[in-house]
Amino acid sequence: MKEEFLHFVWKYQLFDPSSLTDNTGSQIEVISTGDYNHDAGPDFFNSRLRIGGTEWAGNVEIHIKSSDFELHGHHRDHSFDNVILHVVWENDRRVRNARGREVLTSAIRVSGSVHDKYLNLVNNPAVIACQDEIGKCDRFFIACWLKALMVERLSGKCGFIETIYRETGNDWEETFYRLVCRYFGFRVNTGPFEMLSAALPYKVIKKHSDNLFQVESLLFGTAGLLDEGLFKSTTEDRYFLELSKEFRVLSSKYSLNPVHGWLWKFSRLRPVNFPTIRLSQLSSLLCTAGGMFSRTIESKDPGELKKLFEVTASSYWTDHYVFGKSSRPVMKRTGEMALKILLINTVIPIIFAYGKSRGERSFSDRSVEFLEKIGPESNSVISEWESAGIHPGSAADTQALVQLKTCYCRKRRCLDCRIGQRIIASGAILKNPEEVIMES
Question: How far apart are CA 165 and CA 36, in angstroms?
């Protein structure tokens, strides 16, 4: 038995009401279970009970054993003096509060089917514990929960964005630049790209955004990829030598300190995903007329965003993947999958965060609308949900499902999940079924 399970049982009144009695055996009637407290202090505030014809208002504390009240030091804490009922699984001792008054304690009984359903979920070895039960849930109910999870995921990303925003001196352009650089690394080179964006401020790039060659020299040079020892045959590569010469001038002018070139990973990557190609594509993006960030927040449709971030590496890279070695000519455009990852993980979240910071809901609503208009992602996480019978229709759904698996399923937070709550509660007759349907 776990205390969090008893919290859930009390919150939704899934216990046998006849088991709730006072010290004389008189029935305790629950008028309101109270407000669930996630912070320090009693577990439920503002509860209302009727005991022996008298209505009581106060707090409720819940433990596995009544002796836990003293074990947790509540008998010395005056914030527990207003506890009108101590709900326990095992009443093994009478306890008193900090004022020396006995705390009314009552043990509750829970239906075995409710407890079994809870144990079947939290002890299920499958990644998605409810995969055999979720198909029985109403589709509209699941859709409502996914909508809430999608907003929860966007809000969670806001925290990361706000941290970068503070680090950059409350500069949205610099913040966006760093985020875009981060996701141009596409996991494998995320670290080096983050280091690059910190070593090369956007304000420097902005001064040269009308010159693609200079922007490439700044990016490749600060990335440490213009060191002659990294690639073969660069001593005769004209473009490499011209970039190196230009970077020597610019690095001296702006006092730039390059990151180590050996940090970049090329192995086990498709050539089109080499950091050299990604850096050239990033250079093209940073030379966007009108400003990358301003055009992003002004976009009214995900199609506009797609066109903005659909860039091609410079002409040198048409027949190169690395410096000094030619290859079959191929235009190096950002692919459909890369664009979708960039929009979902960087562009749309910063629109949401920007709106939240300014108190302008229109931006936040627009970001949600964009996600709903973008097709669903395809990855291993989504495949698992599809196997369980959940078929997403948009990126909003897939982001919600990623949030559900990452923050609830993996941590077995079934008691905090609306789907888990519904399944567990199905083992009892609810006083008010709608409570479990809509409350998170």
Answer: 34
pLDDT one-digit tens code per residue, 207-226? 999 999 999 999 999 999 99
Question: Domain limits at 297?
Answer: 168-372
Cβ neighbors of 359 (< 8 A, separation 6 or more) are none
pLDDT tens for 351-401 read: 999 999 999 999 999 999 999 999 999 999 999 999 999 999 999 999 999
Cα separation, 97 vs 48, in Å, equals 19
- Residues for the chain: how many in total? 440
> 256-269, pLDDT tens digit by residue?
999 999 999 999 89
H or E element at residue 421: helix 418-425
Residue with tokens 């995969």: 131
d(CA 71, CA 64): 11
d(CA 347, CA 336) in angstroms, rounded, equals: 15
The domain boundary, picked from 372, 405, 432, lies at 372
Sign of CA pseudo-dihedral 321, 326, 327, 333: positive
- Give me 290's structure tokens: 């009108």
Shared-domain flag, residues 359 and 258: yes
- Integer Cα distance of 27 and 5 in angstroms: 23
Query: How much is the pTM?
Result: 0.85
